[in-house]
Amino acid sequence: xxxxxxIPVVCAVIEHAGRVLLAQRPTDKHLPLKWEFAGGKVExxxxxxxxIVREIREELGCEIIILRxxxxxxxxxxxxxxxxxxxxxxxxxxxxxxxxxxxxxxxWVTPDQVTHYDLAPADLPVVASYLQR
Length: 133
Fold this sequence. Notes:
Blueprint lengths: L6 E10 L2 E6 L10 E2 L2 E3 L6 H13 L3 E6 L3 E4 L4 E11 L13 E5 L14 H8 L2
């Protein structure tokens, strides 16, 4: 039986005033209360860059500008393999501040504080890639 293709998932490392935004997952979802970079699944036929703008608008109610892409990578959870597609972004001029529509909490943290949070496992390689810049 051939392996299924990884599910494409985008995430945003949103920078603002020397900090990055972390979001805490809700208790009723996979990986409850873990911290993550906000994002979500890429819809069929959707460009990943368009997906991250849409996901951030839906999840955080704000507008972003993509600054650069970080390397994508596969990550295997127990039941599924995802293709993590991370982007470094900033808030668009005039955007409202991010608001936790789907998350329990948000935190603006300095890059060296990110690893002090209980991150979702697939976000750890994103942090490593981001910090290598």
